[in-house]
Each structure stands twice: as C-alpha cells, then as structure tokens.
Amino acid sequence: MDAVRYYIALVLVVTMPPVLLYWLLIHPFIRFWRRLGAALTSILVWIVLGLGGAGLFLARRSLLGPDFGTNYFLVALGVLFNVAAIWLWVVLHPHLSISTMLGLPEIAPKKYPTALITGGIYSRIRHPRYVQIILYIWGYALIANYLAAYVAVALWLPGIASLPGWRRRNSGSAMARPTRSIAAGCPGLCPNGVGGEIKPF
C-alpha cells in the first residue's frame, strides 16, 4: 500500500501544477493564442507543460515531503470521491468532446464551434466537469496522504474558481449573454433544482 500511495502522490505532484498551468496560460492570453491557431498553440503550450512536469519529476525527492502514512478511513473516503467522479464522467461524457475538454473551441471557435448545453446535469449545475475534477484529485490525495499531494490539489481550488470568469470573457457575445443570464439561478458547483441554459465548460 505504501508503494501505491507513493506513486499516486508522485503523479499528483508532477501533473497537477502543469495541467492547471495549461488553463492559466490559455485563458488570460486567448487573443494571442487565437492568432497563432490551435495547432501551434497546442505544440507550444504542451512543450512548456512537458518541461514543467519533467522539472517537477527531477525534484520529486525534495517536493514530496512528509508521508502521513496509510489511513484506511481516508482511503475509503478517497475511493468514495472517485466513485462519485466516475459517475459524473458517465453523465458528462455524452456532452463533452475531446476538443471541448482540451479547450479548442476557445482557441479556434470557428474551426471548433460549440453551443450551450441546455439539458441533463447542466440544467442544475453550471460546471459539473470542475466538480468531477475536484472529486478525482481530492480522492487520490486522500488515498496518498502525502503533504505534497494535498498542496498540489489545494492549488487547484483558486485556479478552478478563476476559470469560469475567464471562460465567460473569452466566449463570443452570443454565448456570454445567456451564460450570464442564468448565473444567478444555477449554482456553479453545488447542484439545485433550477434549470437553464448552461455553458458546456
């Protein structure tokens, strides 16, 4: 179990910061990336992320920090989080293409046109995909029970909180207006019974 926890913590520490960096590189500079095009943007950004992940891997011994040991209560809780995340994936999968998950409609909206999703879980919560990601990474962090794993996933909370605002600003006006119009009635991360047109991000 100790080896499993170690490798889970290692994967979180090496991958979580670069994946968050992907979105933080894309959204604030979307006009620049749109001028470059989706293909060149993807190449440049993934080179940066690969270098970042490689650097974190090389520094893994100093980054992983304290190991709090196997805690089977946390393991069970982490498994429950991951089961919930898998269920959300099953619900979300029919609505989300690979290009949408990679953010290509934002980089090249004409080449990868997308539309608001109006049904299913998106009528009750604006950003179920973010909830799924949070459940996944916190589930694995609880199983790993390393300080560095907790820190790596904790960085995602302010990062994820900033993404919806960037996405609304980067969307075309035709999508931004209806997205803002339902914001007051449909919560971002906690579902309720309020319906509405929801942006597919």
Mean pLDDT: 78
Q: What Rg is obtained from the alpha carbons, in whole angstroms? A: 18 Å
Structural class: mainly alpha
How many β-strands, per DSSP? 0
- Characterize the largest beta sheet: strand count, sense, and whether it forms a barrel: none
Spatial separation of the terminal alpha carbons: 36 Å
Quick overview of this protein structure:
The chain is mainly α and 201 residues long.
Question: What's the arrangement of secondary structure elements?
Answer:
Elements (H helix, E strand, L loop, with lengths): L1 H25 L3 H7 L1 H21 L1 H4 L8 H21 L5 H4 L2 H4 L20 H17 L2 H8 L1 H15 L2 H9 L20
Q: Can you characterise this structure?
A:
With 201 residues, the protein is an all-alpha fold. The protein has one domain (2-181). 67% of the residues lie in helices and 0% in strands. The protein contains eleven helices and no strands. The chain has helices spanning 2-26, 30-36, 38-58, 60-63, 72-92, 98-101, 104-107, 128-144, 147-154, 156-170, 173-181. It is globular. The two termini are 36 Å apart. Mean pLDDT is 78; it is low at 173-188 and 192-201.
